[in-house]
Amino acid sequence: MKVGSQSWKFNNNVYLLETATAVGPLESQGPLKDDFDILYDEPYCGQKSWEQAESQLMRSAIQKVINKAKIKESDISVSFAGDLVNQIVPTHYVFRETNIPFFGIYGACSTSMESLLLSSIFVDSDNAKIALAATSSHNSSAERQYRNPTEYGGPKPDTAQYTVTGSGVALVSHKKTKIRIESGTVGIIVDAAQNDANDMGSAMAPAAAQTIKQHFQDLGLDPSYYDLILTGDLATCGSPILIDILKGEGYDISQQHNDCGKLIFSDDQPVFAGGSGCGCCAVVTYGHIKKLLEEKKLKHVLVVATGALLNPIILQQKETIPCIAHAVALCAAD
Amino acid sequence: MKVGSQSWKFNNNVYLLETATAVGPLESQGPLKDDFDILYDEPYCGQKSWEQAESQLMRSAIQKVINKAKIKESDISVSFAGDLVNQIVPTHYVFRETNIPFFGIYGACSTSMESLLLSSIFVDSDNAKIALAATSSHNSSAERQYRNPTEYGGPKPDTAQYTVTGSGVALVSHKKTKIRIESGTVGIIVDAAQNDANDMGSAMAPAAAQTIKQHFQDLGLDPSYYDLILTGDLATCGSPILIDILKGEGYDISQQHNDCGKLIFSDDQPVFAGGSGCGCCAVVTYGHIKKLLEEKKLKHVLVVATGALLNPIILQQKETIPCIAHAVALCAAD
User: Fold this and answer.
1) B93: closest chain A residue by CA
2) Verdict on whether the full-model pTM lies above 0.95
3) What's the number of domains chain A is made of?
């Protein structure tokens, strides 16, 4: 049910049926490695190109989630999926192998929660029995598309983020599980007049702040309702900016806030300000956070996926980067 | 309400509240020119780049539809929008000027009906009071991205299609108007093993056939139910292939079929096999077809938007082109 200007409250028993994650080599060495389902030890994932490797990440995660949930592919009513590559091709090359009804979406790194929010709305309103949300990113396919040829090797500033190689997928249905999807908030596009493709966190923080503030207002909540408000991915540069903006709006989230881009790597890994990419929030949420909710180490989590809607041609035309954030609230079910 | 494996039947009074269209110079000289709201007489539409021109097409169409429907921007509950440019930036640069809740989607030329189908599902299930579906394409921004530098001037084969410069937008709500949205069918991805970026119609025909056949099966209909089955855009090459495939499946649509890519230009315009681009199906449907439905010259129309999910990098990797088609059925309301 829609509440307020940007949110939905899911009163109709919407649950995370199952999730699955697949990650690349650097993520397989990080602090969350035990929480992922499939670990690839080389960046091609057995394929011939980075784009095909990204498809392989999503393909294996989808096969895994279908197996874990003990369903058939034909049980999936509808899917919402996308990635960072132009024309979301890694996603298309996975879904052409299936007969799953398919809605392609694009929200840069916000795609993970855009797909989970749409899946939840469809299940809540009985437009789908089982909905599939899928997203992926690959460091090398993203790097050459958005910044420089991957082999270029130019030095990066500390504000840069490292695109995660990984895919996270989720199934949503009415079947009671340990994780209920409580509510969600769709974003509006916010442009903070930033144009540095090596500082996405600062660009995205104002969009995250707008969505979080509206989430509280639409649902009549305050930060204390959540044990964790998890952005994906503001990393070390954007996170303090988000906290500052919301403090100015009267919301102190400093105790509850953390960021997927900070959690997925350790300080000694070569990732500058932290992780990013639509795979980052997806694998952290569907791997790590799901486990903590199932173990009841977390009760109420708001996942806020942030997207920098960046395009190199438009930046060359001296434009700034519009951003968006979509949020979904998960809770440990009784 | 979901029916069958890929379709929805809208029993809950879903209507096309209003539409608006904006087109470029070649479209303004074509046979449908009197059916469009806004005609630009030069390809930059008063802007400094083709991408910005594409934004201007969508921006002016959205302003127009809001004015025609006599609503305020804040009355729009949710929007589904996208275009052909990498990262759908023309769309993002329009929506950053608004506070409209935004879901970015990507379906190549199928985006027009993907956005109208999602809007209709949201209104049917009371997840939105007024939903906005918007899409655009621009010949020059598409040409340089998908094929060759626009100034290159290489000759094209007769199978090539000409990307329409235009934007079509629609508002969907429960308010009774002359056009009811009856049903819709989401596509699955079909790859016909075609890899020629200058023959999209042949690549897309099998995806259109799958969606149309499933539409008939899910809703218990046959071709005779429709006065017009309108694809967008198979043009002159893909259209006979679609008719042949469906004949082989037991459905003869030869009497009802037409194609947006054939309707929007006349034979003496320099457009090879006809129009394409997600603006094509949008402006033909929301300009021309809407008028014919309002005048009751058409009663039941199935609009089938077809997308070639083409990416130049993947074609260089010797891959083929996956395709998809989404359908929405419109009828003249009593």
Assistant:
1) A322
2) yes
3) 2
A33 touches chain B (CB under 8 A): no
Domain carrying residue A278: 179-332
Q: Which residue in this structure is represented by tokens 């279908």?
A: A66
For B27, B62, B179, B181, the CA distances from B330, given in Å and listed in that order, are 24, 21, 7, 5
Q: Which residues lie closer than 8 Å to A62 by C-beta, 6 or more apart?
A: A20, A94, A98, A132, A134, A169
Last residue of a domain, one of B130, B147, B173: B173
At A240, phi and psi to the nearest 5? -65, -30
Q: Which of B190, B193, B169, B151 is nearest to B83 (CA)?
A: B169
User: pLDDT by residue (tens digit) across B66-125?
Assistant: 999 999 999 999 999 999 999 999 999 999 999 999 999 999 999 999 999 999 999 999
Same domain for B155 and B19, yes or no, is: yes
Per-residue pLDDT, B156: 82
pLDDT-derived band of residue B147, with 50, 70 and 90 as boundaries? confident
Q: Using an 8 Å Cβ cutoff, are A124 and A116 in contact? A: no
B140 touches chain A (CB under 8 A): no
> Do residues A145 and A232 both lie within one domain?
no
> Coil, helix or strand for A123?
helix
pLDDT band at A162, cuts 50/70/90? Answer: confident
Task: Name the β-bridge partners of A172.
Answer: A16, A131
pLDDT digits (tens, 9 = 90+) for B33-47: 999 999 999 999 999
Q: Which of B92, B109, B117, B315 to mutate to test the interface with A (most CBs of A within 10 A)?
A: B92
**pLDDT of B153 higher than 80:** no
**Helix H or strand E segment including A61:** helix A50-68
Are B210 and B102 members of one domain? no
**Is residue B328 less than 8 Å (CB to CB) from chain A?**
no
Q: Domain of B86: which CATH number?
A: 3.40.47.40
Is the pLDDT at A150 greater than 80, yes or no?
no
Tell me whether residue A57 is exposed, middle or buried, using C-beta atoms within 10 angstroms of its C-beta: 0 to 12, 13 to 18, 19 or more. buried
B140/B56 Cα distance (integer angstroms)? 14
Mean pLDDT score, A186-200: 90
Are A133 and A230 in a shared domain? Answer: no
- Residue A322 tokens read as 């519009």
A89: nearest CB among B52, B92, B314: B314
Q: Is B128 on the interface with A (CB under 8 A)?
A: yes
- Confidence band of B308 (pLDDT split at 50, 70, 90): very high
